[in-house]
Amino acid sequence: MSSDEHFEVTIPSDTSEGQAVQARIVEALEVREYPEKDVFSVRLALEEALVNAIKHGNRMSPDKSVEIQCWISDERVRVEIQDEGEGFDRSHVPDPTLLENLERPCGRGIMLMGAFMNLIEYNEQGNKVTLEKIKGVAPKPPDAEAE
Amino acid sequence: MAAGHRRVDIEEVSDVTIAKFIDKKILDEGNIQIIGTQLFGLVDEDGRKKIILDFSNVEYLSSAALGKLITLDKKVKKAKGKLKLCSIRPDIYEVFAITRLNQLFDIAETQEAALEGF
């Protein structure tokens, strides 16, 4: 058993900096022997969340940064990512799986995060996302959440 | 395009172009832009109409990469061509299934199967 780990890091609006944070978290999960499926899910969700924060939240502004908080234990990993953007209303994001939206090249990031993580939550303003993955526990399919 | 910036290997089998991703991770924005430019060039500049995208090497891909694939599919359709995807590992296939893009794209299990369908 490894002891719990917590770190906080602030990065500029630069996707390569986001990649470095992603790599750090992925490495910590591998050390704790998270299943490959979990590592895949977390990497994918982090990529989507960080790109959203940097590109859509901060609009790549060099004056703005992204704050990341991460808690990792042997049972779960929780990551909070906050940008300095105006935020957004998740209900206004069009459903990318509808036939009329299927050919739109954008709008799939949030959906993927929801499908691969056990928890995805936005604050009221919509500029902070919390992601959680429980080791070895598959997320509920989207249909099950509505029940 | 400089060889160092090449992200996709191109092979011709009769009149079909097979484009095989070199990277394991199609994640970061810079790479995705380069991949997009190279793939779009196959249609826009080289006028290729039968294209297979081979995912054998790909272990990760993000929604930004999916966006490029959708744009490529549109370009190919506009040129009255056909795009097929093949050799997608299960984790990645799940990304296509969740986003229902498995309904938009023609996905074959292997390169051979994709070639047979043309």
Structural commentary:
The complex is a heterodimer of chains A (147) and B (118). Chain A has a single domain, classed as Histidine kinase-like ATPase, C-terminal domain (Heat Shock Protein 90). Chain A is an alpha+beta fold and 147 residues long. The mean pLDDT of chain A is 93. In chain A, 35% of the residues lie in helices and 23% in strands. Chain B has 118 residues and is α/β, with parallel strands linked by helices. Chain B has one domain: Transcription Regulator spoIIAA. Chain B has helices at 29-44, 63-78, 90-98, 101-104, 111-116, and strands at residues 8-13, 16-21, 25-26, 50-54, 60-61, 82-86, 106-108. In chain B, helix 1 packs parallel to helix 2. Chain B is globular. The mean pLDDT of chain B is 92. The interface between A and B is medium-sized, with 24 and 24 residues.
